[in-house]
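Q&A log
Question type: sequence-to-structure
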Amino acid sequence: MRKALVVGLNDYPSAPLEGCVNDAVRFNSVISKNGDGSPNFHVMQILYTATKAELRHAIESLFEGENDIALFYFSGHGLLKNTGGYIVTTDATQYDEGISMDDILKIANKSKTRDKVIILDCCHSGALGSSSLSDTENKLAQLCDGLTILTASKSKESAIEIDGSGVFTSLLLDALEGGAADLRGNITPGSVYSYIDEALGAWEQRPVFKTNVSRFTPLRTVSPKLPLTTLRKLKEYFENPAQEYPLDPTYEFTHQDAIAEHVSIMKDLQKFSTVGLVIPVAEEHMYFAAINSTSCRLTALGYQYWRLASEEKI
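Response status: OK
Response body:
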């Protein structure tokens, strides 16, 4: 079972927000289905308002049971005090602003769910997973096995909203819609963070990624950049990763001596070249490698997928 709790709060009485509900709705629409329309997460959505008791109950319910993955997404106000970070609920009062990030971490750490993912798009969200207590009590900041945290900003930074949408969530959605997919179409928390990290400059809010996992479980899948049947051919064209595949003019369809079987192989090799798995040797383009009878070879990334194909993992 893949469960997700998606929360977007706008209606704060003294400091209303504009884009959090929209971000949550968009996140829900993306995460609930894979790229091919197949079911992904079973989503419970909380929008506009939530009391501390309501949200606490929903979070505890999310992490109950022995599910495959539980994902918590929150967009709203965040607060940093000398007692730690908080996600702010719409019934917040002084000295009781919302749910402690330390408490959220405790709940997730105790969960028997195999993989736990927490995504916060709020100010000071990077405080999640950072101990607010003395050095002798740092166990609170430890992440249990299978827990991943992705936040919009560091603990002392704000989370920026532009044109009715959080900058972080806009990039998050781009990543989930395919920007962070590997060649097999898998989108993992690590690839999402990498995508967001590269998009944000050194002087902008900095996303935070914390994890304690021995594997990356995909958050979503999309159509692969290459058909898996084509990827598997890497092991056919290259018997070992150090081998070069020899080319000659018969592989180029425009040449008078072109051979149909060779042209078909060349099409696959060019597809590999397009996604960075193969490069021509001593030539700038695959076309010239064929015309000038050189060869092509695997890149480092190509070796990775050659190994996966050889071990029948794709």
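Response note: Residues 185 and 224 are 4 Å apart (CA to CA).
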